């Protein structure tokens, strides 16, 4: 079966998501989360990927990535998801029982303006919206915790091309605006870039992101 076109070009920012098969819980203990954090750090180093934000939830995760070169996104995601799948199956003695993830990851272009910060905030506030914590930085398995509570945040995070708000702690703990949530959720649902209308149209035209299916399952890029 064919696949929807996916972009993998450098110097664009991406919102990346993957979920456990059947939406089952794959992060159950602190050790489960710590394993993924360790692999995220290794994948970042091996592929020279710029990680702007992340959050690990019980059955899925979100990343905001800023690859330097074409094909870097695919290399990073291939290494991370395959390494994680192998390690989980090895630890749980479930090798050969089926996939860990529901399928290939989903990625969406983000305009490098305030939309970048909107998506970053959306990612980091996931645990609050899910009722897992009251303050964003209290969720140990997200980039907000790293920024505000860790002394070695540079092990996981790179500097954003758009500076974070000076009142970052208050900003990230302020409730999401409904119109921003609607825009991001629409981007995820439709598989389209997240940005201003003109920019989205440019990206759709440039990378043929019209939802059409390519022959033999090969996307136009990557």
Q: What would your notes on this structure say?
A:
This protein has 222 residues and is α+β, with helices and mostly antiparallel strands. It has one domain: Transposase IS200-like (Alpha-Beta Plaits, 2-Layer Sandwich), CATH 3.30.70. The chain contains eight helices and four strands; from the N terminus they run βαββαβαααααα. The chain is globular and about 50 Å long.
Task: Spell out the key features of this protein.
222 residues, alpha+beta, Alpha-Beta Plaits, four-stranded antiparallel β-sheet, disordered C terminus
Number of domains: 1
Helix content: 40-55%
Strand count: 4
Q: What is the mean predicted local confidence, pLDDT?
A: 88
Distance between the termini: 17 Å
Structural class: alpha+beta
Count helical runs. Answer: 8
Poorly predicted spans:
211-222
Measured by DSSP, the beta-strand proportion falls in: 5-15%
Overall, the morphology is globular
Largest sheet, strands/sense/barrel: 4 strands, antiparallel
CA-atom Rg in angstroms? 17 Å
Strand order of the largest sheet: 2-3-1-4
Main CATH class: Alpha Beta
Describe the SSE topology.
Layout: E1 13-19, H1 30-47, E2 51-56, E3 60-65, H2 72-92, E4 106-110, H3 114-124, H4 126-129, H5 143-149, H6 168-172, H7 178-190, H8 197-207
Antiparallel strand pairs: 1-3, 1-4, 2-3
